[in-house]
Structure formats: C-alpha cells, structure tokens
Amino acid sequence: MRAAGLTPLSVVPELYPMTGHLLHKTLTPLHPFHREFHAHEVVRESRKVWRLILRSPHWNEIRKSVAMIAGGERSRASSVDLTHDAISAIVPGTIEYEKLTSLCRSLISWRTGPYQLGELYLDTEWRSHMKWDRISPMIPRKPNMRVADVGCSNGYFLHKLSLLNPEIAIGFDPVERCWLQFALLQAILQTPNLAFVPMGVLSLNAFPQFFDFILCMGVIYHQRDQALAVRRLYDATRSGGHVLLESLVVPHDEPLTISPPNRYAKMRNAWTIPSAASLETLFRAAGFKDVEVRSFGPLNTAEQRSTTFAPYESLSDFLDPSDPTTTVEGHPAPHTAAVIGRK
Ligand SMILES: C[S@@+](CC[C@H](N)C(=O)[O-])C[C@H]1O[C@@H](n2cnc3c(N)ncnc32)[C@H](O)[C@@H]1O
Questions:
Q1: Is the full-model pTM beyond 0.85?
Q2: Are 249 and 320 in contact, with CB atoms under 8 Å apart?
C-alpha cells in the first residue's frame, strides 16, 4: 500500500519526455523509492529548471554537447578513485581531452572539487576535500543509509558520501549549471545509487521523513527564512536520523547573527550570517536532539581561491587587504562551523 497523496514516479509519464535522456538519468535512481516521495512535485520542479535550460541558447548548446560526450556506456570511466582529495577517473578513449576541456570551460564556474578526469585536472574554486576532512568525522556511519546533500553544486560531496555505501544518495540544487555539471561528471564516474534533483531546500517537503542523513552546507546564510529551511530539513529526516548543517559564521561566542544591510563579502544574497552558537539555537528550536556544534576557525584562501575553471573573484577579493579579519565592507570575516542534530 502506498501512502496517501504520494504518486509513483513510474506513473508520471511527463517525466520521460521531459528531461531527455541525459538529465532524466540523474532522476532514474529515485524510481525504486517512488512510493515514498511526492513524484509530481519532483516533476514540476525539474520541469521548471529544464525549461530554463531549453530557453537559454547558452545552456541549450551546452546541454547538447554534454549529451554528445556523455551518451550511454561509451563515457564510463574504466577506473574511479573517490578516496583521494581529487576525485579521479581514467576516462575512456572515446572522450577526447580537447573536447572535454572545452566543455568544462563552457560550464564555468566550477565550485566544488577538484577532479582529475584523465589528463584534465579540474581545479575548482574550493578545495572541497578540506571541508570534507573537517565534517566527515561528524557523519554517522550506518549501513544502507538514505542520504542527501542539499545545495550539492556539482556533486563532489555526494560522491564522497557514496563511500558510506548508502542505499541512495540524492543531491539537491536548483541551479541549471549544477545539474549539467553533475550530469557530465556522473556520466563518466557512474557512481552507483546517486541521483540529482534540481530543487532547493524549501522543496524538500516532497520527501517527507525520507532520509537517514542530510548534509546541507553553504546554504543557510542564503535563506531569508532560516527557521523554515531548518524545519524542512527536519521534516525530510526519518526519526532517529541526523542533519549536519555547515555554514559561514561570524566569530561570536553568543547566539548572535549579523544581517548586513547591503552585501557581505561582496555577496548580494547573504541575508543573515549566523554565529556557531546561533546554529545550535536554530537546531534546538526545530526540535533536534543531541545537538553538537563545531567551530573550524577562519575560512582561508588556501581553500577558496580563483582558478582557471573558476576565473572570477574569490575569497582574497572579499577580504580587506589591510585587515583580513574583516570583509571589504567592514564586517567580521567569515569563519566556518557545523552543527549536527538527531531527530
Ligand atoms: C556556497 S555553495 C555551497 C556548495 C557546497 N554545498 C559546499 O558546501 O561547498 C551554495 C550552493 O547552494 C545552491 N543553492 C542555491 N539556492 C539553493 C536553494 N534554495 N536550496 C538549496 N541549494 C541552493 C547553489 O547553487 C550552490 O551550489
């Protein structure tokens, strides 16, 4: 018996013609779970992003190029290593280095990584393994978990999470570029049981009490209603499951936040920057138990910097050159912290 109000993905015929083969494939690992989430919602949200891709001459061209390189079994790596800092793969001879490099350039900017794809070193803005090394000791290790990465960008942490042998790992990110980057990488890496759903954190109510573990990093300070976003994470978690939320924070010992009137570190959409202590308050208010916070100190330019595949301004441009403890706007410079709680 399926739960009332939930629609099996298999009886949502729009899904198939909707995304075309390449991007549809990122939803396919969801099929065995179709009785447990709101498939119509997933279809509706995916369609929105799919239409944005089709309407943009830029993204539509790139979509076709990704589909050409990444079609079928031809693109599968003969060997993949997810254990090192750079996720690496031996790329099949059918994928020419020049074509792959040019496609990756057209998909700029690459945020999470790095990746070594054959001869191509995809040097991303963030050296995400440094974040992984900080947060991975906090992650509960249980067999067959259903895990999510909300705000997953191109999926670097999803591939890392797959080292835990989850039943399924689902990445959520509403940005077109992220969907295309994920599809390209996954066509090569073909990590099992990995899905990408182009939806944001507030759409997580399509997955009621679905996950054993949710990772949500670098997202909360972009949310206007942080309590609502944390509530969505809570509601999508099964009883006994955990949510780990990581964020830029301001260095206060008290549960204080700052809401910059204009920009914070040149970001237009950083609404409220929490402190580590205020992350704890948010989690307790949402109903989480066994809440634990870790502060990691200042974010540094060894971890976040511009590269050839992220050739725009980065952290060093966001800090005051004469005083790196403040942003260019005069706010406290970003530190990072993470909070974990059990439902
Ligand atoms: C600062 S990046 C963090 C990426 C990665 N999670 C990390 O920690 O390195 C924020 C990510 O959230 C995504 N994003 C934007 N709006 C979102 C939303 N409403 N819900 C979830 N993610 C969102 C962005 O596309 C981007 O990939």
A1: yes
A2: no
